[in-house]
Amino acid sequence: MCGIFGIVTNLALAPGDLPILAHHAEQRGRDSSGLVIARESGYDVQRADFEIRKLLKKTTIGKTRLVMGHSRLITNGLSDNQPIVRDGVVVIHNGIIVNFDEIWPKLTRTRELEVDSEVIAAIAADHLDAGGAVEDIGKIVLETCKGTISCALAVPRLGKLLLFSNNGSLYSGKKGESLHFASESFALNQVGCANVDQIFETVVLDIPVHECVTVADSKSRVKNLIPELVLNSTEAALLVYPEPELRRCSKCILPETMPFIRFDEDGVCNYCHNYTQRNKPKPKEELFKLVEPYRRAHGPDCIVPFSGGRDSCYGLHLIVNELKMKPITYTYDWGMVTDLGRRNVSRMCAELGVENIIVADDIAKKRDNIAMNLKAWLKSPHLGMISILTAGDKHFFRHVETIKKQTGIDINLWGTSPLEVTHFKAGFLGIPPDFEEDKVYSSGARKQLRYQKLRFQAMMKSPGYFNSSLWDTLSGEYYRSFLKKSDYFHIFDYWTWDENRVNQTLAMYDWETAPDTSTTWRIGDGTAGLYNYIYYTVAGFTEHDTFRSNQIREGQLTREEALVLVKDENQPRYPNIKWYLDAIGMDFADVIRVVNAIPRLYAE
Question: What is the 3-state secondary structure of 242-307?
Answer without folding.
Answer: CCCCCCECCCCCCECCCCCCCECCCCCEHHHHCCCCCCCCCCHHHHHHHHHHHCCCCCCCEEEECC
